[in-house]
Write a structure and sequence with these properties.
Layout lengths: L1 H8 L30 E4 L11 E4 L13 H11 L4 E3 L11 H20 L4 E2 L22 E5 L7 H18 L3 E5 L4 H9 L4 E4 L2 H15 L1
Parallel strand pairs: 1-2, 2-3, 3-4, 5-6, 6-7
Helix pairs in contact: 4-5
C-alpha cells in the first residue's frame, strides 16, 4: 500500500507510456478533432447526473472538486463514470497569474498528466488551454497538440479590464502556437477574441455555462406557462 500511495503521490502510474515535451517535459496530449458542440456539456461536479455518450464533461469548476482523481482509492471508480460520456474537455487546474511560476508550472503539468491518463484509458479529450500573463507562455502550451480542437474558458476570468486584456493576449498566443482546428469556448466571448479568431479563420464554438442553460430552461418554462 505504501508503494501504491507513493506512486500516486508522484503520479508515476498516470504517466506510464507518455511521451514528453522537450523543455518542460510535460506529457504530450494527443487531442482530438471535434467538429461541432456535443448535444450537451455538463460540469465534472455533475458527472453522476447523466450517462450519455452524446454528452461531454468539462472541468471548469473549482479545482478542489476534481482532486479525488488523484486518490488511488477513488480514481478507478471516477474513471468508470467518465467512460460513460462521449469525452471530456480537458482538466483545468488554475494557472493564476498572481501565483508563483513554479505553482503555475505544476498546474499545467497536472493538466497534461491527467489528460494523458484519460487518453490512455480510452477517453476522448479536447485539451483545455490556460495561461497566466505573458511569462507563462514559455511553458503553458507545452504538451498540447497542434492542429486539433482545443478548449478555453473565460468564465470568471474577465471581470476587470486588465483581466480582459490578458485573456485576449493569451488567446492570441494559443492560436499562434497551436494553430488549432477550432476552439471550444466556455463563457462569454469577448469581441476582441471573436474578431481575432475570425481574422485567423479559426472557428469558435460556444459552450454555454450552467447558469446560461438554467436561464434558457426558465425562459422555455415561462413561455409554456
Amino acid at each position: 500500500m505504501a508503494n501504491r500511495q507513493m506512486a500516486r503521490l508522484f503520479l508515476v502510474d498516470m504517466i506510464q507510456d507518455a511521451h514528453f515535451s522537450h523543455n518542460e517535459e510535460n506529457p504530450q496530449v494527443q487531442g482530438t478533432v471535434l467538429e461541432a458542440a456535443p448535444k450537451a456539456v455538463i460540469g465534472y461536479d455533475h458527472r453522476k447526473d447523466v450517462h450519455d455518450m452524446e454528452t461531454w464533461l468539462h472541468f471548469y469548476v473549482d479545482d478542489y472538486r476534481f482532486l479525488p482523481l488523484y486518490q488511488p482509492q477513488r480514481s478507478q471508480e471516477i474513471l468508470k463514470v467518465l467512460k460513460t460520456y462521449g469525452g471530456v474537455f480537458g482538466v483545468d487546474h488554475s494557472v493564476y497569474r498572481d501565483l508563483p511560476l513554479p505553482e503555475q508550472r505544476y498546474s499545467v503539468y497536472l493538466n497534461r498528466v491527467t489528460d494523458h491518463w484519460f487518453e490512455r484509458e480510452g477517453i476522448r479529450v479536447v485539451p483545455n488551454v490556460s495561461w497566466g500573463d505573458e511569462r507563462s507562455y514559455d511553458f503553458c502550451f507545452e504538451g498540447l497538440p497542434d492542429g486539433t480542437s482545443i478548449a478555453v474558458s473565460s468564465h470568471g476570468c474577465i471581470r476587470a479590464k486588465a483581466d480582459k486584456a490578458i485573456f485576449v493576449e493569451g488567446f492570441k498566443a494559443a492560436i499562434y502556437r497551436l494553430r488549432p482546428r477550432n476552439v471550444f469556448h466556455y463563457g462569454k466571448i469577448l469581441p476582441e477574441v471573436e474578431a481575432f479568431a475570425a481574422e485567423e479563420k479559426v472557428p469558435l464554438i460556444r459552450l454555454p455555462t450552467r447558469q446560461e442553460r438554467a436561464f434558457a430552461k426558465q425562459a422555455v418554462f415561462g413561455k409554456e406557462a
